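Design request, tokens follow.
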């Protein structure tokens, strides 16, 4: 009977793509491929806006099974001891067409988690003010189609099973379950006959396709003779797909007989009862009456272990998984931090990473050899870290390969007693650490020698917490959490360890000094405001100078950092002071009635504080108050000019020596702030912005009235004189 296929469709919402500067700019899509899937098809849809700012763009899409893809678009260096394998990626070009649709097919894909990451090319590094320019939206959406076989035949181990391949267009799919502790698997195909009683030719594919690397095994059988394939270390406790396709004529069916057999390894380890007692003792301490039994168990454990080594192919050590936080796990050995390693059989440790939430961090495995425990000076402890199944033949294979995966090798010796391995974004699976003692003269030369190796294994969101020049950020895509490093001060790389473009300490100190000391240019503006008796304005400038200085001292990416309070508070106060300074300066230039001016001061400050709380970096938070204040100033100047029947301000010296230089400095400052700042030149272009704005304020402040003496404090106390002064200000003010 024909097999029953079921198609399923999975979709996720589109995401807006970003230019790449760190992993957080890549947009992640997370899918789950069900069991018995024989065909997987990705539908990738990319689109862009229709505005003139939208140009042709190349989108890079990365694929990986089991964990988010490890990518390196910037070509930076990874941390030492980190294992990196290139990701599988394709490029989608958005040219003249507004939309692009691309299909990617994967036959017999591995079941489980699949991840797609998409991003635009490297970011230009220009700092864009929100609202001045409209960036082009580039959207990307990934959909998944799967074709699943509902009644896939099961191949029972050790039982020959006849099957029929109906035609080359309809391959045969079967599956076999790999038991735990399977050291090897042998697949045999025999009695291959076509319906026309001729010799047949078939191709057998064992395993599923995984990306970026696929270890699917192929076997071509011709004629009726038996053909077989032996696999070392197949994946434990998993279904293994087998596909048989006919290479003959289109109308002929093929009959075959398949047999799968396993060689099971007998593990040797301390008994479960001893592990249970050891766990209780380490967690809660001994109880009266239990100390004697615990001591007896500890004394019997080495004897049992040594007796089992000769009859078992591996020695399993109990490991406890301790969850610390999100994407943070520590592995603790029950029998102590060090484990015995011999040449007779490998020592095996299980590192459980199959919760589905562990693939977003970094797995770190460190080995430390106790030099006094190895009697042979030239002996080496070889280790392999592998997923799905352990490496059980370290004495014969040094590349740590298993049936369908490639492990990561490690080694320690008396000359190099320490070794560390970092696995970036480890795939969701059971991970194994295998250790075995190797002797230069062969295994017979070890003569029962044994070494002790301290094992430290843990899962961390970011290796070394991204170092002193990086920030570890926890990212989220729906319910999946993963971590990435955002580097600063010119440092780069996956863990911010690439110093090829790093700023020197001298450059960092110079940047801090420029950005902080440039705010001292507000001192002339403050002095002018105080001299002309604009005390409220002088207070605002002092507030701005203070918080801008300490905000930039706290905002530095390097080691020259000083934070007197919370960073967010400093940033908010700096932005608030900057906008309010512009607001009060323009209103002061309008020469309004004092009561009206101070009402606008307070009301405008409250509205500015509210708008900054809503959107701190919006351009209209600065441009809105500026334009409204300019409207008030122009209206007041027109009113004064109409009342006096001549241009206001009337003095050409005021225009030439004060207003025009102040306006020019202000326009230059806005141009530098909006169009010239980049990540590389920020420390001096923003310092120029500080200087230009402070100088423009000193030029734009209106002069005091000629009838008003500076520092005439006692004369300001009488209310009657104040009223008279207001009248005189209206009649005789010289501007």
């Amino acid at each position: 009977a024909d097999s029953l296929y079921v198609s399923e469709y999975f979709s996720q919402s589109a995401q807006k793509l970003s230019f790449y500067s760190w992993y957080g700019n890549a947009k992640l899509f997370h899918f789950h491929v069900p069991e018995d899937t024989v065909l997987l098809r990705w539908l990738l849809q990319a689109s862009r806006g229709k505005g003139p700012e939208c140009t042709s763009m190349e989108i890079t899409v990365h694929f990986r099974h089991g964990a988010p893809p490890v990518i390196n678009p910037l070509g930076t260096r990874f941390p030492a001891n980190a294992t990196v394998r290139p990701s599988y990626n394709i490029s989608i070009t958005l040219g003249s067409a507004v939309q692009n649709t691309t299909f990617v097919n994967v036959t017999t894909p591995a079941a489980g988690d699949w991840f797609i990451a998409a991003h635009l090319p490297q970011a230009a590094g220009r700092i864009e003010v929100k609202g001045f320019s409209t960036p082009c939206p580039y959207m990307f959406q990934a959909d998944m189609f799967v074709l699943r076989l509902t009644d896939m035949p099961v191949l029972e181990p050790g039982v020959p099973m006849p099957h029929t391949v109906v035609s080359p267009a309809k391959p045969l799919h079967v599956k076999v379950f790999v038991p735990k502790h399977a050291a090897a698997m042998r697949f045999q195909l025999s009695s291959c006959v076509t319906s026309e009683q001729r010799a047949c030719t078939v191709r057998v594919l064992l395993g599923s396709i995984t990306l970026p690397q696929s270890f699917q095994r192929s076997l071509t059988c011709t004629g009726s003779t038996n053909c077989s394939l032996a696999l070392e270390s197949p994946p434990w406790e998993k279904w293994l797909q087998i596909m048989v396709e006919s290479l003959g004529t289109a109308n002929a069916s093929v009959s075959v007989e398949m047999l799968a057999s396993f060689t099971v390894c007998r593990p040797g380890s301390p008994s479960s009862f001893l592990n249970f007692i050891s766990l209780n003792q380490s967690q809660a301490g001994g109880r009266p009456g239990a100390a004697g039994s615990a001591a007896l168990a500890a004394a019997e454990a080495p004897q049992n272990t040594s007796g089992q080594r000769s009859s078992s192919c591996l020695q399993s050590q109990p490991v406890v998984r301790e969850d610390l936080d999100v994407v943070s796990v520590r592995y603790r050995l029950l029998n102590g931090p060090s484990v015995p390693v011999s040449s007779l059989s490998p020592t095996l440790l299980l590192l459980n990473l199959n919760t589905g939430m562990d693939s977003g961090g970094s797995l770190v495995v460190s080995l430390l050899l106790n030099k006094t425990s190895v009697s042979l000076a030239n002996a080496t402890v070889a280790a392999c870290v592998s997923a799905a199944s352990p490496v059980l033949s370290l004495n014969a294979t040094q590349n740590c390969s298993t049936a369908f995966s490639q492990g990561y090798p490690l080694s320690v010796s008396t000359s190099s007693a320490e070794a560390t391995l970092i696995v970036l974004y480890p795939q969701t699976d059971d991970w194994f650490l295998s250790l075995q003692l190797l002797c230069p003269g062969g295994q017979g030369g070890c003569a029962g020698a044994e070494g002790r190796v301290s094992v430290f294994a843990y899962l961390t969101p970011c290796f070394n917490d991204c170092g002193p020049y990086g920030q570890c950020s926890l990212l989220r895509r729906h319910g999946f959490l993963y971590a990435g490093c955002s580097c600063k001060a010119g440092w780069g790389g996956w863990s911010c360890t690439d110093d090829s473009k790093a700023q020197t300490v001298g450059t960092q100190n110079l940047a801090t000094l420029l950005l902080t000391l440039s705010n001292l240019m507000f001192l002339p503006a403050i002095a002018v405001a105080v001299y002309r008796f604009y005390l409220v304005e002088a207070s605002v400038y002092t507030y701005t100078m203070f918080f801008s200085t300490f905000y930039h001292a706290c905002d530095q990416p390097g080691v020259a950092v000083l934070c007197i309070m919370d960073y967010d508070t400093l940033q908010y106060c700096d932005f608030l002071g900057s906008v309010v300074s512009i607001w009060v300066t323009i209103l002061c230039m309008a020469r309004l009635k004092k009561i009206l001016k101070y009402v606008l001061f307070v009301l405008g400050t409250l509205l500015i504080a509210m708008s900054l709380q809503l959107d701190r970096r919006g351009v209209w938070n600065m441009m809105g108050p500026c334009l409204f204040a300019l409207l008030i100033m122009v209206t007041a100047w027109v009113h004064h000019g109409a009342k006096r029947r001549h241009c206001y301000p009337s003095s050409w010296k005021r225009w030439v020596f004060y207003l025009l230089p102040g306006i020019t400095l202000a326009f230059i400052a806005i141009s530098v702030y909006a169009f010239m700042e980049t990540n590389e030149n920020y420390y001096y272009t923003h310092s120029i912005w500080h200087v230009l704005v402070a100088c423009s304020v000193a030029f734009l402040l209106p002069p005091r009235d000629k009838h008003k003496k500076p520092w005439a404090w006692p004369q300001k106390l009488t209310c009657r004189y104040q009223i008279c002064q207001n009248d005189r200000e209206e009649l005789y003010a010289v501007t």
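Comment from the thread starter after seeing the answer: thanks! The chain has four domains: 5-149, 161-264, 315-460, 505-700.
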